[in-house]
Structures are given as C-alpha cells and as structure tokens.
Write a structure and sequence with these properties.
Blueprint: H1 4-18, H2 21-49, H3 62-86, H4 88-95, H5 98-104, H6 109-138, H7 146-173, H8 177-193, H9 204-212, H10 215-223, H11 229-254
Helix pairs in contact: 1-6, 2-3, 2-6, 3-6, 3-7, 3-8, 6-7, 6-11, 7-8, 7-10, 7-11
Length: 256
C-alpha cells in the first residue's frame, strides 16, 4: 500500500506529464545536450588526430575531455531548469485552489512536502537518464571509466536534489511563479559561486568553511572520483534543511 507522500507524488507526476511545461524543458534539455555532446566529441576527434608533442601528455582522456564537460553542462542546465519545474509546485495548488483542500485535509505537511520532493526528483531523474545515453553510446566505440562516470552522476543527482529542495522552499514562500523561480535561481547561484569569496579572504578558516559550503566544489570531487563523506553529508544536510524549512512554511499556512 502506498503511503500518503507517494500518492501525492504520483498525482504530481501525472499533472506534470499532462501539461506542456515538462516536455518543453525536456526538449530544450535534449537539444542542448545533443549539441554540446556533438561539439565535444568533434573536439576530441581533432585532438586525437594531432601529432604528439614530445614530453607532453597528449593522450585523449574521455573522462576529462567528454564526461566531465558534459556533467558540468548538465549541472548548469539543472541550475536553471529545476527551479522552472519546482516553481509551480505550490503556486499551481494555490491557482487551482487545491492548496486549501490539502491544508484542511488530515494529510500532514511533511507528507505534502515529501510527495512534491519525490515527484520532482523523479522528473530530474528522467532528465539525467536521457543525458546518460550520450556517454553510454560513446562506450560502444571507446573505453570509459565507469567508476568515474557513475560517481559523476551520483554527485549530479545529489546536487540536483539540493536544487529541488531549494526550489520547493522558494515556491512555498511566494505566491508568484516568477518570483519563486528568481529566488530559487539566486539561492542556487549563491551555493555555487560562494567559493569565489574565499579568494578574497586571508583567513584560512574562513576559506575552508566557504569551500565546504560550495556545491560546485563538491560536484568536482564527485567528477574526479575523490568522493568524501563530508561532501555527501553536506549535500544531504542541505536537502534536509530546505525540506524542513518548506515543511514549516506549509505548516504555518495551515494555521492562518
């Protein structure tokens, strides 16, 4: 028997699959991934045909030359596309006036948030699944480092889950889809580019803290196969933190 959050997740997924929004994102995502994958493969081909320079490492590395570039691009796209998917989560409920039904029902606010979180993660997984086809097709004619590829995608999924949690929180605190989207993108950008501030600090402790809270730094660790427990704990903590904040916002709305 499905629990309440999974029932809400199934309803959310059906709603997204019935509308055009998800398919537009899917089309743009596939278009950009296809273009960049083709360009990257052509660059690798040109590099492999260039004469070797004595004393230089001219070997073609498929992971750094293709997989890493692809993962960084997907990361940038998710930064913009995930807020587009989550900004409707609570705004659409308010628009169709089903939010009041949810709030007055015996369903807990935690189940509501977890249902929407699971639905958004399912949609993100479908995007990642499509992107995975490109390195998979390349593996037919080339040898890939599967451990690094899987590590890169695990990191990518965890980072995307953070963006989903941030997007749900932004959607919960705003009645406007556009405002919700902007808030989510700004928070996502802050989590990525906060590492730049460490370069201006002369305090090593501050630099260490800023580096630790940089999502891009942790994603790079996953891409390089240098996964650390502290990085996994940090990303999971970010998800739990924003899910908790969203649950508190929804719970407070129940008593207004």
């Amino acid at each position: 028997m499905l629990n309440t959050s999974m029932i809400i997740a199934k309803k959310e997924i059906r709603t997204n699959l019935k509308g055009p929004g998800f398919y537009i994102i899917l089309f743009l995502f596939t278009l950009l991934i296809s273009f960049v994958s083709y360009q990257t493969v052509m660059m690798l081909k040109i590099k492999s045909q260039m004469p070797a320079v004595p004393g230089a490492d001219d070997g073609v590395n498929l992971h750094s030359g293709f997989v890493a570039q692809l993962v960084y691009l997907i990361h940038f796209m998710l930064l913009l596309f995930v807020p587009a998917m989550t900004s409707f989560s609570f705004a659409e409920e308010r628009k169709t006036r089903t939010m009041d039904l949810l709030l007055t029902s015996p369903i807990t606010s935690f189940d509501i948030v977890m249902g929407k979180l699971n639905a958004s993660l399912f949609l993100v997984l479908s995007l990642l699944g499509i992107s995975f086809l490109y390195p998979l097709s390349l593996s037919i004619s080339a040898s890939l480092d599967w451990s690094l590829l899987i590590s890169s995608y695990v990191g990518l999924f965890l980072v995307a889950a953070v963006y989903v949690a941030i997007g749900l929180f932004s959607s919960a605190i705003s009645t406007s889809v556009i405002v919700s989207y902007v808030i989510a993108v700004v928070l996502n950008l802050f989590c990525i580019f906060v590492v730049w501030t460490s370069q201006t600090s002369e305090n090593p402790l501050v630099r260490d803290i800023v580096n630790h809270i940089s999502i891009s730094k942790h994603l790079t660790d996953f891409i390089q196969g240098a996964v650390q427990i502290s990085g996994i704990v940090f990303l999971l903590s970010m998800i739990v933190f924003f899910v908790f904040l969203t649950q508190r916002v929804i719970e407070s709305a129940r008593w207004r």
